[in-house]
Amino acid sequence: MIDLRGVHKSFGPNQVLRGVDLHVPKGQSMVIIGGSGTGKSVLLKCVLGLVTPDAGTITVDGTDVTRSDRDAFLARFGMLFQGAALFDSLPVWQNVAFRLLRGSLKRPKGQARAIAIDKLQRVGLGPEVADRFPAELSGGMQKRVGLARAIATDPEIIFFDEPTTGLDPIMAGVINDLIREIVVDMGATTMTITHDMTSVRSIADQVAMLHGGQIRWVGAKDAVFDSADPYVTQFVNGLADGPIETLR
Amino acid sequence: MIGFLASVGATTLALLAGLGRLMIFAASSLAAIVRPPFYGREVALALLNVGYLTLPVVGLTAVFTGAALALQIYAGGARFNAEAVVPQIVAIGMVRELGPVLVGLMIAARVTSSVAAEVATMKVTEQIDALVTLSTDPLRYLVAPRVLAGLVSGPVLVAVADALGIFGGFLVGTQALDFNPTTYLRNTVDFLTLPDVTSSLVKGVAFGGIATLMGCYFGLNAGRGAQGVGAATKSSVVAAAVLILAANFALTAVFFTA
Ligand SMILES: Nc1ncnc2c1ncn2[C@@H]1O[C@H](COP(=O)(O)OP(=O)(O)OP(=O)(O)O)[C@@H](O)[C@H]1O
Ligand SMILES: [Mg+2]
After folding, report:
1. How far from A147 is each of A41, A56, A87, CA to CA, in Å?
2. pLDDT tens for residues A156-171?
3. Nearest CA of chain A to the CA of B225: how many Å?
4. According to the CATH classification, is domain A1-75+189-217 in 3.30.499.10?
5. b/e for B109-126, b at 16 or more Cβ within 10 A?
6. What's the pTM value of the predicted model, to 2 decimals?
């Protein structure tokens, strides 16, 4: 479904992606792991066209993302940003229902609000937060509102950038279950970035590790925990010693 | 020597490229105003912020400037027994130059800075990226409503500034300088011509457009972090003020050189 071939991206002298090849099959949950600053968020933004790659091709269902009709293309996607990226001029429910209040998916206000409150419920937030403003919420609550916004229109493809960072372990469990449910019950294709191995265990079908600007390793979830690759082993076990350099 | 020439060349090229980008941005923003989708709520909010909430500061500056102008003209005119021209010169000075320029600089200070800071903050917190992924064009949703509000509010603010500036002169003239109120007003009205007023309002449209465009442009092109927001805000106000004064000169030249 999503195919990346030889994707390169540099910011000035900083070569972030140096030929990323990745295939995400339809209806599967792909989890991307990798060190901080290796370009995981940039990778997702390349697929969405928010960052233009310097080289390489990205296709969704065989169509090049740069050639598709932008509106129709983006309507298939949901995205949770690493920093939640809520609109602070709008109350929470209007953030969640943003797409339902304007454009091609527009519907009556009451209905949009009902959907927003339902999605908030699914991420563990009660109706009382609906009328608050994003700045009045804690970081973890903002993240969950961002998650509710990403799934509000039940898109086919959803990207989650660190969905569980900043959440307590119980809430992280709830979110992991929700993401799994979205893949299994709704048949969505997802790419999730996470540093949380519990998340990897509960939501992944496949895992890819980004290192040195390339996909270092990709395989099924179970294989990641007893991989022979020293990079993967060091990463999933959180070891200070190994081939991945740590500056100290 | 070669190095010096190269750096002059590079600076010139960068300047021209920047100007080109600005022109393209202005053209696409103006196009976005007339092409759907339209965001009514955003336009209303922008009108409130750009127009209505700017009224007090514009009004106050205009009254004081008109009053000071009357005092100066009286003092200057007294040197060759021309004290009587106060109403006429205050009217011309306010309507042709000071009203539009004051409004231009006030909205550069108040509106351009707030628009730039708001849009730049949205940019650095990924809210602009989020807008795009939610199938909403930032040019239509953020830029067009603000620029439209600038184009509409500009002439209204200038009209208010003109009127209040004349009123400031009138207050000083009648309370401190012994002018007869009726004569003062009649002289003002008789002396002003239609081109005076039209040029004033046209300048208002231009300055309102420039102020909001600069805020949006520098906001959308902000660098990363809080520093990016600060730099964008500063550059936008400087660019808006300079462009407004340059445009004022150009428009004055067009309207008043026969
Ligand atoms: N807009 C940008 N301009 C310049 N550099 C950027 C930009 N976006 C990202 N980078 C750089 O690209 C690199 C990768 O950033 P990215 O946000 O993708 O990291 P990440 O893998 O998501 O890390 P983390 O796990 O900490 O979120 C970083 O070195 C970052 O400084
Ligand atoms: Mg990231």
Report:
1. 16, 30, 14
2. 999 999 999 988 999 8
3. 13
4. no
5. bbbbbbbbbbbbbbbbbb
6. 0.91
- CB < 8 Å & 24+ apart, contacts of A125-131: A125/A92, A129/A92, A130/A91, A130/A92, A130/A93, A131/A91, A131/A92, A131/A93
Is residue A88 scored above 70 in pLDDT? Answer: yes
Phi, psi of A222 (to 5 degrees): -65, -35
Which residues in chain A (76-135) have CB-CB distances under 8 A to chain B?
Answer: 77-79, 81-83, 85-88, 98-99, 102-104
Residue with tokens 């992924």, as numbered in its chain: B133
Q: CA of B141, closest CA in chain A: separation in Å?
A: 11
If one residue of A18, A41, A160 were mutated to test the ligand 1 pocket, choosing by the most ligand atoms within 8 A of its CB, it would be A41
pLDDT digits (tens, 9 = 90+) for B111-131: 999 999 999 999 999 999 999
The tokens describing A108, both together, are: 């009556």
Contact yes or no for B127 and A85 at CB 8 A: yes
Q: pLDDT of A17-72, one tens digit each?
A: 999 999 999 999 999 999 999 999 999 999 999 999 999 999 999 889 888 888 88
The ipTM assigned to this model is 0.91
